[in-house]
Amino acid sequence: MIGDAGALPVSTHRARLMPRSVAARELAIVLSRPRAMAIKAGLPLALAILLVAGHAPTFWAGMLLTVLVAMVGAVGTAVSVSRAREAGFLTRLAVTPGSRPRVLTGWVLAAAAVDLVQLLPVAVAALLTGGGGPTEFAVLLVALAATLVVTNVLGCLVTLAAASAAEVLLDVVLVLAPLLYLGGLFTGVPSDGWRTIAAGLDPFSHLHSAFIGMLGGTPRYAAGLDVVAPLAAAVVAVGLLAALSPRILERD
Fold first, then answer.
1. Which among 136, 175, 193, 249 has the fewest CB atoms less than 10 Å away?
2. Where is the ABC-2 type transporter transmembrane domain (predicted)?
């Protein structure tokens, strides 16, 4: 989730907006608000504990946690980028010397790193209370980190169509819903057909599989696929973000 653009004064010196400092700015905003970070980390953890303590079926527990990850990254970033545009921060980034793709991708990757820290307690809770071991935990961490990159990029791209911070909420749902469905989170993955192929390419399907394995169930995919597929999706997402970064920064 990208930090609030209003956290730094409008009079921020241009040097502080140099590409190498944009990611540092994002991290500084988060560190300046430890209470907010604790709350954002505590709520997903509470949900995870309730699911595990309530012995929810691993398929449904994994589904709810995967949807939570999708919403944390995509909604937070979409709203924050929209607000940053309204505050004029993106306009200042657009005229900052340096590579625009590097500016925006650095910012979004820093936001994904913050989200990973926020959701790390959920993964640890699954390790301590679920039926998985160190291998399943490692797979989950990689799938979680890569999927958060994808969701943060999606949230950023959604702002190309949304006119306001309020409108992006609906747009994010319209983008995420088919991706989650194609990943088999709501109905399972068919044994054959085009939906099987689509699910195999969908990072949410592999994160769901990794959560199931961590919680003690039988993952849909092999551990290697649950690592490689989300990483490949993250690389594609970052490349798309870099290609569209001028349009995102220059959009009125």
1. 193
2. 58-241
